[in-house]
UniProtKB/TrEMBL annotation:
One Gene Ontology cellular component annotation held by this UniProt entry: plasma membrane
Gene3D superfamilies assigned to the protein according to its UniProt record, in alphabetical order: 2-Layer Sandwich, Phosphatidylinositol Phosphate Kinase II Beta
Main location: cytoplasm
GO molecular function: 1-phosphatidylinositol-4-phosphate 5-kinase activity; ATP binding
UniProt protein name: Phosphatidylinositol 4-phosphate 5-kinase type-1 alpha
The organism's place on the tree of life at top rank: Eukaryota
Pfam families: PIP5K (PF01504)
């Protein structure tokens, strides 16, 4: 069990080194072999001619496909110094709500990036996915799919801890009043009692149908843009035979937030921090769905903090933060079994793990 602070420290040392050494290499086109390169560097605690001394145990840091990921970061307008500054200048913040997967999540102090620990299988799957992912991002950088900015591994004390750096969907400075993990299935899709007891629970499909029976209302252009993006993204996931992903929908209720502020009225310092503008392009929900036609900036996004404007049945103003998550689960053996078995016991149409082409 590597302590969290040692892990955070090792991640920051490793990323600083790998991004720094990459910047000395000239820019060039990404080639097929770039997807399969793994760079490895040893960090002894006393330091070496390549690495600084540090207070942790010795560790090894591996960077997967450094040149390919440099290209992905460039595609999203993330400059190497910004990437380093965001991730390595201040301590990473550990998020308490680890996912169902038991992954650890860290967020950079400027809210720009999420770091998630992934299992060996998921890291391996992302590596295999990279050439197709590359092709897809080239054609369509506006996507609700996760944006992967780096894949690394910290090896210490006989343990491998693999981490992926992604865009952060939920700015901490915006209070999310509700959050749903949706699969479009109703079988066993209710949040557990344990989940409901959390400060900030993630509800599921049945909860959504119960809490928001009339649905959410979007401007028709916005609705069409959202549907078009989702259809396009699902087609990509299907082509990779990916299953079991979810649509994460977090809802900030602007009217409720105003009432909360009014009630707090001076008794406690209401949090009026505005999220800093995101450095990465296309990283907010709003930018992800706006097609080429919207480049003219017809939509006023200033006071929307990156969220997609919507209303509920009461007419309250909402901001939606949306993204597709958990795409590194590949639809192979375990899931195939899960589907056939559940389909035997239950109507196949409501089961949550579907064949990719369903």
């Amino acid at each position: 069990q590597t302590t969290s602070s040692a892990l955070k420290g090792a991640i920051q040392l490793g990323i600083t080194h790998t991004v720094g050494s990459l910047s000395t290499k000239p820019e060039r086109d990404v080639l097929m072999q770039d997807f399969y390169v793994v760079e490895s560097i040893f960090f002894p605690s006393e330091g070496s001619n390549l690495t600084p001394a540090h207070h942790y145990n010795d560790f090894r840091f591996k960077t997967y496909a450094p040149v390919a990921f440099r290209y992905f970061r460039e595609l999203f307008g993330i400059r190497p110094d910004d990437y380093l500054y965001s991730l390595c200048n201040e301590p990473l913040i550990e998020l308490s709500n680890s996912g169902a997967s038991g992954s650890l999540f860290y967020v950079s102090s400027d809210d720009e990036f999420i770091i998630k620990t992934v299992q060996h299988k998921e890291a391996e799957f992302l590596q295999k996915l990279l050439p197709g992912y590359y092709m897809n991002l080239n054609q369509n950088p506006r996507t609700l799919l996760p944006k992967f900015y780096g894949l690394y591994c910290v090896q210490a004390g006989g343990k491998n801890i693999r981490i992926v750096v992604m865009n952060n969907l939920l700015p901490r400075s915006v209070r999310m009043h509700l959050k749903y993990d949706l699969k479009g299935s109703t079988y066993k899709r209710r949040a557990s009692q344990k989940e409901r007891e959390k400060v900030f629970p993630t509800y599921k499909d049945l909860d959504f149908m119960q809490d928001i029976p009339d649905g959410l209302f979007l401007d028709s252009d916005m609705y069409n843009a959202l549907c078009k993006t989702l259809q396009r993204d699902c087609l990509v996931l299907q082509s990779f035979k990916i299953m079991d992903y979810s649509l994460l929908v977090a809802i900030h209720n602007m009217d409720l937030a105003q009432r909360e502020h009014a009630m707090a009225d001076g008794t406690c310092q209401a949090d009026t921090r505005r999220p800093a503008a995101q450095k990465a392009l296309y990283s907010t929900a709003m930018e992800s769905i706006q097609g080429e036609a919207r480049r003219g900036g017809t939509i006023e996004t200033d006071d929307q903090m990156g969220g997609i404007p919507a209303r509920n049945a009461k007419g309250e103003r909402l901001l939606l933060y949306i993204g597709i998550i958990d795409v590194l689960q590949s639809y192979r053996f375990v899931k195939k079994l899960e589907h056939s078995w559940k389909a035997l016991v239950h109507d196949g149409d409501t089961v949550s793990v579907h064949r990719p082409s369903f």
